[in-house]
Amino acid sequence: MHALRTARLLLRAPHADLAEAVADFLRRNSEHFAPWDPPRPAGLHTAAHQRELLASQALAQANGSAYRWFLTRHDAPQVVIGSASLSNVARGPHQGASLGYALDAAHQGAGLMHEALQAVVGEAFGPLNLHRLQAAYRPENARSAAVLQRLGFRPLGLARDYLFIDGAWRDHLLTERTNPDFVRPPEWGP
């Protein structure tokens, strides 16, 4: 998978050379991400663990089951400041994926995640030709609510006890966006 470029960001596909930068990103933000993340394995914040994950993520991208990008600024390309992903990619009659994202605490409030996710949605609805994206966020996460609304995601409703986060089952608000320019795959026939 290729990198995506925006006015201020480079969204880099998984590669072993990102291991230390991704580990550093996770270490810097471990407290910031704690209220929003599921339990994480020991060693997650090490370059060795990240090398393994990056190899797995690159393989998932190669087979089309998931896509991940790591955000760097054009003026600091060696520092990872966020990530964006399309997971649970389903083809067949669904043609959809789940959108996920995380941004460094020090870079919030500058519109960077909106900028990055515009590129990811463009990739999903353009070259990947997905029909539907869904995203879930905790009701108290006002920043996620705002970025998804700005991107045109529509609310679907509340999913009770949706994910195990920060030591308990947490409710999440579900949202969706569909691709108005979806192209019917040739294998579906006329």
TrEMBL record:
Task: Give every N-acetyltransferase domain span.
Answer: 9-180
A Pfam family that this protein carries is: Acetyltransf_3
Against InterPro entries, the record matches this protein to: Acyl_CoA_acyltransferase, GNAT_dom, N-acetyltransferase
Transferase as a keyword? Answer: yes
Superkingdom, according to UniProt?
Answer: Bacteria
Which keywords appear in this protein's UniProt record, sorted alphabetically?
Acyltransferase, Transferase
This entry carries the following GO cellular component terms, namely:
cytoplasm
Asked whether the keyword Acyltransferase is assigned, the reply is yes
Q: Write out the GO MF terms.
A: protein-N-terminal-alanine acetyltransferase activity
Family of the protein in this entry: Belongs to the acetyltransferase family. RimJ subfamily.
State the name under which the record lists this protein.
GNAT family N-acetyltransferase
